[in-house]
Amino acid sequence: MALTASLRRTLIALFALMTFIVMVFYWNQDALKPTSYLSTFDRFMRTNFVSEKTWTYKCVNDRCIRQHYLTEHHHEKRIPFLTCSMTCGASNIWPEPTGKVTLGSKSLTFSTAHVRAHIETPFQRVENLFRDAFLVFMDDLRLIENVDKDDKGSHEAEGHGGAEVNEIPTSVPGAKHPDDTRCRVDHPCDIDQFEISVKIHKYQDIFLRMDTDESYNITVMSDNRKISVRINAKGFYGARNALTTLQQMVWYDDEDKLLRIINRAYVEDAPKFGYRGLMLDTSRHYFSVDSIKRTLSGMALSKLNRFHWHMTDSQSFPFVSRQYPQLAAHGAYSNHEVYTVEDVREVVEYARVRGIQVIPEIDAPAHAGNGWDWGPKHGLGELSLCINQQPWSFYCGEPPCGQLNPKNNNTYLILQRLYAELLELAGPTDFFHLGGDEVNLECWGQFFNDTDLRGLWCEFMLQAFQRLRVANGGISPKMTVVWSSGLTNTPCLSKNSFAVQVWGGSTWQENFELIENGFNLIISHVDAWYLDCGFGSWRSTGEGACSPYRTWQNVYKHRPWNRMRLTPVQVKQILGGEVCLWTEQVDESTLDSRVWPRAAALAERLWSDPDDEHDFDAVHKDVFSRFSVFRNRLVQLGIKAEAIFPKYCAQNQDECV
Length: 657
Known about the structure:
Elements: H1 2-27, H2 35-46, E1 55-60, E2 63-68, H3 81-85, E3 101-103, E4 107-110, E5 115-120, H4 124-145, E6 171-173, E7 193-200, E8 216-222, E9 226-233, H5 236-247, E10 250-253, E11 258-262, E12 265-269, E13 275-281, H6 289-302, E14 306-312, H7 326-331, H8 341-353, E15 357-364, E16 384-385, E17 403-404, H9 409-426, E18 431-435, H10 441-445, H11 453-471, E19 479-483, E20 498-502, H12 509-516, E21 520-523, H13 526-529, H14 552-557, H15 560-563, H16 568-571, E22 574-581, H17 591-595, H18 598-607, H19 616-636, H20 647-651
Parallel strand pairs: 5-7, 7-9, 13-14, 13-22, 14-15, 15-18, 18-19, 19-20, 20-21, 21-22
Antiparallel strand pairs: 1-2, 3-12, 4-11, 5-6, 8-9, 8-12, 10-11, 16-17
Helix pairs in contact: 4-5, 6-8, 9-11
């Protein structure tokens, strides 16, 4: 019995010991794993997944191949996707340059603290404007450089407060503080100096014009821990485009936690079309100045150069005119949803530094309702007719209705003073947009049934044009733009003074008639370049939507001048094109994803106009790859661009297309 009791106690003790050991192993099972795997796994679990530290990439036959880093290659240095793709195969510049391009296959790390620019130009105003553009370039680089500043273990972002101009009159430093915290012992930089030399030698224009030379060439060289960049341009706009191309030679390496740049490059470039635009309707929904600026930043990176601001419509009149504040008081959605003179000036200056001209539009005579109803109370008579009239489908294209009174001289005086304000704010311009589309003759017919209504439209447009001349100091803009309509081909409009923005279908007869009649055209075909299409009808009656959705491929492949079989002389009548975003179903929360990256597809079509309409399948892998990289650049700048395919396709180059 004693032996049995002793054995029992021994077995109980052994069981307790084994239970303890098992519990220890259970709660400390990570200790059983190899140290290298645990640290890698732990790093993976604690890292923002955007950094993609699971994968490394290898360049094979000009294509980046994804390989698992945690289990297969963790003893080697990880190569991030961008570092591979920027040095493997064809260039990732968007839009694709039109001239000679050579790029190196290696890259060098640097910090924004290393960057300096030297400007050589005989034109002081050009120098001042380029300095501002360079500061924008540096701010964008810092934004990319600090993309991981919240990651555990990364350093704090340098406080810079904007770049400062040092004592040398033509030298602009890239950072406020010379002491760099990016380049450290654990992450040393490859270069100590990054010098940009800029020569602008021919044109002194600081405002974009129809014939502005936007060409440039850029050379990147490296030697003895130094990057040297040479930019040559005839004017400011070419030099600014060169900065955008240089920016696309730079990327953030999330392994080294440093910026990288191609070690050598040469690019010659110039646009095929001078007018490369984006239209935003700010009447159907109001958009803050900040959201408009964000749109302009995307345009600048894409080399789009005209922001067509469809400021007012029948739904609302958000512009606070100094001469006629009653328009906004009666027409704005609220006293917070308005654009003051200061707001417009701020947008114009923000755009100009980024190489963009702002073209404001007060649509007339149609699309003018709310905001124009105060005339009788102020002794000015009926400024607009059919305001909010029902049934709306009889008197306008969509509710609410409203159409300016062509027989009231006060209407023209108000337009003249509005034009004068906008011309002053936008600066010297070769383009001015009068609107002119979708005039409803039934509306006017209620009041002027004994009048030739088509002639009345002519009378209105010619009166508005004359008032524009007066507002512009007695000088007509080189090109006054009107929307296409059933009235556009009326003989009263001069082909020498008016350009037509064609918004109808690409196969409509009006395209050919306008060309044959000698008009210059800005293309905005609804079946390719309307970004609001494909989201269903927003009302229960009438034709309230266009469909289907215009994919970025639809935007990119649209090449109407080729399909129309125009002669070389007729092609010169195509000034360029413009994507349009009407905002019945868009507000600020969805602005970025509706515009981007599809507007960038138009940017390459109009800048490069690649000859691939009938051979898109042969080149689309390169286009998809470059477009994917460019879309990510937009996101890095804070633009919430729509995805173009699953992330797997972005990580596995060419597999999905």
